Amino acid sequence: MEGELPGYTPRAGNSHASQDVLPTGSERTISLEDNKGHKWLLLSVKSRAPTPNSLPAFYAGDLISGNVTLDILKSESSKAIVTAGTTLVGQEEQQFLVIEKELWSPAIALPDGSKVSKLEKCRHTWPFEMTLPTETEVLDRKEKRMFPLPPSFTERASPAYINYKLTVVLKRGALRVNQTLTTDFGYVPITRPDLPSPMLQKAYKENIPLVGPEGDPEGWHTLPPTSVAGTLFGTKPVNFDFTLTYARGSAIPLRLTFTGTDEQALDLLSNPHATRILLKRSLATGSDATSEDAGKHTDNFFVEIMGRAVFWPARDFSTTGKRVLEGEVNLKKALKQTVIFPRFAVRYHLEVHAFEVAGFVHTPPVSGPLLTQPVSVTSFHAAGVVMHSFAPPEYVQEENENFNNSVGLLENGNQRFYHHAGSGIA
Questions:
Q1: Per-residue pLDDT at 180
Q2: How far apart are CA 104 and CA 126, in angstroms?
């Protein structure tokens, strides 16, 4: 194995989204009211969100802008008005970034240029702008390091989350309670896989069959062969090898090659329905989350099945002593991108599991995966390339298929928890 494979991207989203200019989006306004229903403090935020009722959403590099309005019915002796962007991770809400901007105080002029010691009865409006950095310094295992700003992450029953908030604080004088107005917002870093090979790009653009690793070695990553031994029909010893090959920088097309001397065994084991290759997501939340060896048998490590590969017979590639299957893993639209951050890491990997063939028994018995391969999921396609499925219609999986044991179970060490699919920025 030559390290982790290039990134893969769910088929949702616009692969040409600008990082600098917001597309036509919406403006969300929230407010505080007095006991008579008068909206006296309002926060308006422009973002990529499709409707005003949606939470604001931003990509890396977007300008966060809007207005704070104070509509007071009598003079107000506040000390200051501050906007703040804050970010939190985990159930214990550990902050990893705070950006504050003071809009007004007695020492700061109003938008019209005048300075006042207190705000008179009037409708005051302050525009504001802020940009999130692409990196932030965070303490990780007793050492401060720079990390890319992570994406928002929210799922029901999740053991951890990453939350971004925009808050207006009306600071009062002594012995008076500050007033706050807060909205969550979604943040998506821009991550893309490397460009596929020219031949793979041509196949996606022109919707023609993929050229395999024999004709396009630049476009594929071939893992070393894996040997399998077993018994067929209780009496016949069987030995064969399989080799897994991945397309680089695309939506995980696969090739599975079986080699051996027993033609009957090769025919049975190369049945597309006998192969189980799963896409799994691990979520690490402990103090060692950024480590590749994050505690996999602790209460801080969760694994969930996110998809299963489908296979079909490859044309004109099967010969004596060799069978070839083509396949792919469908990356669902709601799939979260890979993220490595202190106390929060989302990783993906492919697992090849024991072959399920009537009359075949692995020797010795197999309890875990035969092969594991890390992959990285990105937030956008490679520039200029839109991925699509090559699976024949009869092999396309239902989008709502539940791959987890029982009803959406989330595995945690030696325990299991109910987990229901949630929503979030992907």
A1: 94
A2: 8
Q: What whole-number distance in Å separates Cα of residue 102 and Cα of residue 169?
A: 9
CA 72 to chain centroid: 43
Count other Cβ atoms within 10 Å, centred on residue 375.
21
| Core vs surface per residue 169-196: b (16+ CB within 10 A) or e | bbbeeeeeeebebebebbbbbebbbebb
Confidence band for 9, pLDDT divided at 50, 70 and 90: low
pTM metric for this prediction? 0.83
The residues that bridge with 416 in the sheet, in sequence order, are 411
Question: What is residue 23's predicted lDDT score, i.e. its pLDDT?
Answer: 55
Q: How long a stretch of residues is the chain?
A: 426
- CB-CB contact of 325 with 275 (8 Å): yes
Cα 286 to Cα 343: distance, rounded to the nearest angstrom? 5
CA of residue 177 relative to chain centroid, distance = 39
pLDDT for the residue numbered 398: 54
207: left (phi over 0), alpha (psi -120 to 50) or beta: left
H helix runs in 118-276, sequence order: 198-206, 263-269
The answer to whether the beta carbons of residues 96 and 144 sit under 8 Å apart is: no
Please tell me the number of Cα atoms within 13 Å of 312 on its side-chain side.
Answer: 13
Helices and strands (DSSP H and E) totals, the chain: 2, 26
